[in-house]
Write a structure and sequence with these properties.
The protein is an alpha+beta fold. The protein has seven helices and 22 strands. Helix content is about 30%, strand content about 35%.
Length: about 550
């Protein structure tokens, strides 16, 4: 079969003569119609054609103006594109439009379909053409005709007139020549309603405006003919039988080509299905990964929140523990302060001298001498010895600090000193002394007051009443004594001076006493109360 076809082509080329070429509409339909599309919008339907395999399509503005005009009524995604093989696409974008020349450039996804080439030459009246489109709902049809007038309105190169029948639905479809190249775009039919008395006028947009729109958007296009001119020329030289044979061969080729296209489309569908499956798988993986990341983020947030909550709880517990420890510490400190205060107070009180002092014992005295003018004779007592009792009250007059506790200060005392003495009495007359009685007893009562220094030395004065017949009934005295304490034993040694008025005589005696002393009544004075308050308020 191939050898026969080669022989026929060679023979026809050698013997071809000048015969007029004719347009093979069957071949045009089989070759070009796959690149023609039907455009459906919510308002109407129209036609268009593929100019680039990347998905660029040319049509009329008025076919899709509902998506971008002043009275837009639908979105780009509402425009549906259908090819002859039945594949449907959704418009992704209205790339550009030329309202003045009623042209629009739209974009769908990439398709594996050959785009129609554009004619790159000049046109004249009488050229045979075909209009491809979808008139009146009849899908993918071809109508024949010629170019009637390249400039019907004498308004420049905008439209040309053709005799090809045009109906609603053809708008935006291609007008092709015998080689399958686009020479114009169907735009309108002007019928008797607009031109009374004239036949219908079918118009197409000249191709130059299409090129400008594509160049402005950097969309490439092809100019190579779909149909080889040599093939058409050879066909015109054939006899009817050869044409039938060639047609049959052509039909077989078309069938083979269609089968190949069908296989390609099936492969494309399979590949697209695989791509879709892969995309779904990738999307599932992305979803799983996204869920995993979200779960990790959620777990991290939960962990951080849990740690923060634990930290806050621990912080509160630590604060409570600290407060409890501080409370216990404060309680212990307060208790210790209370104990220390009690101890210090007890020590302070224990260091206080007794206010009331009682002492009993024995005392003796020896005259040392006399001083003064003796007016007459008078009796004096000599080496008297006997028991005594003493009761006194002490007043602290030292301004010591609280730390010294007033324990060793200077005190002032007032006491009552009853005593009973026995001894010898003498009568002293001027410079001589006569013994009156070697043995005599007397009861004496003294009121004494004075100052005690460091409880080791005292300086006192007082008054004595006596029942001795030989002595005056009362006389004042002064006494100085050194005190030795051997608690509770007291030993004092000193001297006294006695005024024996009215004789105007002062006589001196040496004294000693040994007794047992008892103290009681350790109450606080006003100054000591202030000291105790300071001790209580001390931190």
């Amino acid at each position: 079969m191939n050898k026969l076809l080669a022989f026929l082509i060679f023979t026809l080329v050698v013997f071809a003569e000048s015969h007029s070429q004719q347009m093979n509409y069957q071949l045009i339909d089989s070759v070009c119609m796959n690149s023609v599309v039907q455009i459906a919008t919510p308002n109407a339907t129209g036609s268009g054609f593929l100019v680039n395999s990347s998905g660029y399509i040319i049509t009329n503005c008025h076919v899709i103006d509902g998506a971008f005009g002043y009275f837009a009524s639908f979105e780009e995604s509402d425009i549906r594109i259908k090819f002859k093989n039945g594949r449907l696409f959704q418009v992704k974008k209205i790339v550009d439009y030329d309202i003045e020349h009623d042209l629009a450039l739209i974009k769908i996804q990439n398709v594996n379909i050959s785009a129609l080439p554009l004619y790159n030459g000049s046109l004249t009246n009488g050229v045979t053409v075909g209009a491809l489109g979808n008139p009146l709902g009849s899908e993918f049809t071809i109508t024949s005709g010629i170019i009637s007038n390249m400039n019907p309105f004498e308004q420049g190169e905008k439209y040309f007139q053709l005799s090809t029948p045009i109906n609603p639905g053809n708008s935006g479809g291609p007008v092709v020549n015998m080689y399958g190249q686009v020479v114009g775009v169907v735009v309108a039919t002007l019928n008797e309603e607009y031109f009374r008395g004239q036949q219908a006028m079918n118009l197409a947009i000249q191709l130059g405006h299409v090129r400008k729109l594509l160049d402005a958007n950097q969309v490439t296009f092809s100019t190579k003919p779909f149909i080889d001119p040599l093939q058409l020329k050879i066909r015109e030289q054939l006899t009817n039988e050869e044409k039938r044979l060639l047609d049959s061969i052509g039909v077989e080729q078309v069938k083979a080509q269609m089968q190949l296209q069908k296989m390609q489309q099936e492969h494309e569908r399979q590949m697209e299905s695989k791509r879709a499956e892969q995309e779904r798988a990738m999307q599932e993986l992305r979803n799983i990964e996204e869920k995993r990341l979200l779960q990790e983020q959620y777990d991290q947030r939960r962990q951080i929140q849990s740690q923060q909550a634990k930290y806050e709880v621990q912080k509160v517990l630590d604060q409570r523990t600290t407060a409890r420890s501080k409370t216990v510490s404060d309680s212990i400190r307060v208790e210790q302060l209370r104990i220390n205060f009690i101890q210090e107070k007890n020590a302070f009180v224990s260091g206080l001298p007794y206010r009331m002092v009682a002492m009993v014992g024995a005392a003796g005295s020896w005259p040392i001498g006399a001083m003064g003018v003796v007016k007459k004779s008078y009796p004096i007592a000599t080496y008297g010895i006997g028991p005594f009792a003493w009761m006194g009250y002490r007043i602290d007059i030292s301004k010591r600090s609280a730390r010294d506790r007033f324990g060793k200060g200077t005190v002032f005392g007032i006491g009552i000193h009853p005593s009973f003495k026995t001894g010898s009495f003498f009568n002293h007359v001027q410079d001589s002394t006569q013994t009156i009685s070697s043995q005599a007893s007397s009861f004496n009562m003294e009121v004494e007051g004075g100052v005690l220094f460091k409880e080791t030395f005292k300086l006192t004065g007082g008054y004595t009443w006596s029942n001795a017949d030989l002595l005056p009934s009362g006389y004042p005295f002064m006494r100085a004594a050194l005190i030795i304490k051997m608690h509770p034993i007291i030993w004092s040694m000193g001297a006294s001076a006695t005024l024996t008025a009215p004789q105007d005589m002062i006589w001196y005696s040496a004294e000693t006493a040994l007794g047992f002393r008892m103290g009681f009544g350790k109450w606080q004075t006003g100054m000591r109360r202030k000291v105790v308050k300071k001790m209580a308020s001390r931190p």
